[in-house]
Amino acid sequence: MATRELSVGAPRLRAARRRWGEDVIKGVLALCALVSVATTVGIVVALFLPAIEFFREVSLRDYLTGTQWAALFDPPSFGVLPLVVGTLSVTFWACVVCAPFGLGAAIYLSEYAHDRARSILKPALEVLAGIPTVVYGYFALTFVTPRLQELGLPVGPFSALSAALVMGVMLIPTVASISEDAMSAVPRDLRAGAYALGSTRLQVATRIVVPAAISGIVASFVLAISRAIGETMIVLIAAGGQPSLTFNPLQAVQTMTAFIAATAQGDVATGTTAYKTIFAVGATLFVMTLVMNLVSIRLVRRFREVYE
Amino acid sequence: MSAVPGALRGSRPRGRVRGLLFQAFLLFSLGIGIATLGALLVQVVVKGWRDVDAVLLFEPPSADPAIAGAEPAIIATIYLGLLLIALTVPIGVGTAIYLEEYANRDRWYNRLLEVNIQNLAAVPSIVYGILGLAFLVRGLGLGRVLLAGAMILTLLVLPTVIIAAREAIRAVPGSIRDGAYALGATKWQVVWRQVLPAATPGIATGSILALSRGLGETAPLLLVGALTYVSFNPTLLGDFTALPVQIYQYIARPQDEFRVVAAAAIIVLLAIILTLNSVAIWLRNRYQRKW
Fold first, then answer.
1. I need a surface site. Which of A116, A249, A261, A290 has the fewest CB within 10 A?
2. Which pLDDT belongs to residue A19?
3. How does the average pLDDT of chain A come out, rounded?
4. Is A80 helix (H, G, I), strand (E, B) or coil?
5. Nearest CA to CA, how far is A149 from chain B (Å)?
6. In chain A, which residue's Cα lies nearest the Cα of B139?
7. Mean pLDDT over residues B3-8, rounded?
8. Kind and range of the H or E run holding A53
9. pLDDT at B143
């Protein structure tokens, strides 16, 4: 605003000569920004070119509807459903953990906690979010699975449930921090109004703050789903390596990410169909998470627009 | 919200009980995360602390758990960290400056750039591994080398650094820029001498957090071929492994003794990562300024 008024009053304030150095700097900065664009283009090219080649050899229909995944066997079978179902099953159980508890943590931090409690709890959640996933995988395999067996659940050394539970806890900070951002953006007046009408804290939290912040909360769930779909190390270590078409969380499953990681390590010869499966499954994974991410970005923008 | 005077609080017992139950649920939600964190740390330390010794730190991996170490992996992780900072900070801060100070928000390509970065931040890390496999290892013919690993980790954490740096730059008040312009500074002088120094603590915090995330990544390195058995110390253009990959390799071995070695290596990894995170949190609390 101020600059516009200035330029109306004094048009001669424009630079006397063009500063080339400034232009060069702007160009260099734009180049930095281009790295991100190049990354996206690179990902799309790296995934889809080999994936297209793959679909010349295997029909898309067999891929999407086949119920048996045996890419490295002879004869091979390329039905991706067992991998997708394995992924969705782990994701579902992880969300059963992270959605209610992440939201609960967010409500506590935003509506109940005193400043001092918050200053301890928030860093603790950040530490939880910062633990490497390979460590979570170790924890699932050596701590959670034996505890599940002690509880009498019929799980083997590898199970979808063990991986999913640990993944769910890992995602609590993701859900909590985005949901809490959304709740903090809800204006104080709304709360004050509800209190003035005689609402209890519980009513204010559940009937005022949560509905007002709902787009941010949903965004946090969607992002958690996207991260659960894309998580690799926990499932690679604790969920097993056997693709099986089952929603039963007590069984071992192989997810899309675990398949990619396991196959790429095995040093499959370049150019074979088996090698191209890495890219076909990677492209499937990328498309699934891309849709989730775009939905989540949209929703976050919406709550920012409403209250900020 | 503790502004509600005590006398005005709801007196109906049913509402009271519900309120207490709800609060208990909320505390439980937080508790579950913190209890898991505690159990994880105890499990790892109890199992592995006896094995954090000179063998682990100064010996290469071995098929015999008694003499199996992780020296090449630890050194590679240090190299990766240095490369990561050297590559990520200039590109990330440059992008953030471009978006915050130079880009015209009304242009469609700048808005697309923003959405693109937000999406990249949530692309699964293994997809970055595929990118590295296709372009760096096979396409460019770099092979399965440390530099390829560092470049892939750079692309992976870049969005995090950009988003943190943008927030730090945005928090610098416009009056500081106006003051500098009023004294005749050029745009770059304003950015370089006023905005960036004021935003440095925020940028440093974000960069350190990104570094600690990058050093803990395993999946993309598996794809660019961090070899799981490397018995010599790494060079920039040579075969390499990294600490998380080494840990995974020890976990995947069938003998239980290797789980102990894995736990010991995890202690070293967690020590590095938790130190970085504490420094970041400390920096933020120490230098955070409300303008």
1. A116
2. 81
3. 88
4. coil
5. 17
6. A46
7. 49
8. helix A20-57
9. 74
Place of tokens 């395993």: B218
Q: For residues A37-53, give the mean pLDDT.
A: 93
- Residue A168 has what pLDDT? 96
Q: Do A114 and B30 touch (CB under 8 A)?
A: no
Report CA Rg, chain A.
Answer: 25
Chain A contact set for B244 (CB, 8 A): 132, 134, 233
Provide, as residue numbers in chain A, all residues whose Cβ is less than 8 Å from the Cβ of B195: none
Main-chain phi, psi angles of B66, to 5 degrees: -65, -30
User: Span A234-245, mean pLDDT?
Assistant: 89
Q: From chain B, pick out residues whose CB is under 8 angstroms from the CB of A202.
A: 15, 18-19, 22-23
Q: What is the DSSP string of chain B?
A: -TTS-GGGS---HHHHHHHHHHHHHHHHHHHHHHHHHHHHHHHHHHHHGGG-SHHHHHS---SSGGG---HHHHHHHHHHHHHHHHHHHHHHHHHHHIIIII--TTSHHHHHHHHHHHHHTTS-HHHHHHHIIIIIIIIS---S-HHHHHHHHHHHHHHHHHHHHHHHHHTS-HHHHHHHHHTT--HHHHIIIIIHHHHHHHHHHHHHHHHHHHHH--HHHHHTT--S---S---TTS----HHHHHHHHHHSSSTHHHHHHHHHHHHHHHHHHHHHHHHHHHHHHH----
Q: Tell me, what's the pLDDT at A3?
A: 46
**Min Cα–Cα distance to chain A from B12, Å:** 10
* Chain B residues with beta carbon closer than 8 angstroms to that of A102: 29
Are A134 and B34 an interchain contact pair (Cβ–Cβ within 8 Å)? no
CA distance B189 to chain A (A): 9
The torsion defined by the Cα of A236, A239, A244 and A248, in degrees rounded to 10, comes to: -150
pLDDT of A14 reads 63
* Residue of A138, A235, A278 to mutate for B, most B C-beta atoms under 10 A: A138
* Rounded-to-integer distance, Cα B115 and Cα A27, Å: 21
CB A32 within 8 A of CB B98: yes
What ipTM was estimated for this complex? 0.89
Yes or no: say if B143 and B137 are a contact pair by the CB < 8 Å rule.
yes
Kindly identify which residue of chain A lies nearest to residue B275, measuring between CA atoms.
Answer: A127
Select the residue from A18, A28, A135, A166 to test the B interface by mutation, using most B Cβ atoms within 10 A: A135
Mutate to test the interface with B, among A118, A133, A232, A281 (most CBs of B within 10 A): A232
Chain A contact set for B92 (CB, 8 A): 32
d(CA A133, CA B154): 18
Stretch B38-46: mean pLDDT: 94
pTM (two decimals):
0.89
Which residues in chain B have their CB less than 8 angstroms from residue A138's CB?
A: 44, 247, 251, 259, 262-263, 266
Percent of chain B at pLDDT above 90? 59
Beta carbons of B132 and B220 less than 8 angstroms apart? yes
Q: Cα separation of A284 and B267, whole Å?
A: 36
> Coil, strand, or helix at residue A77?
strand
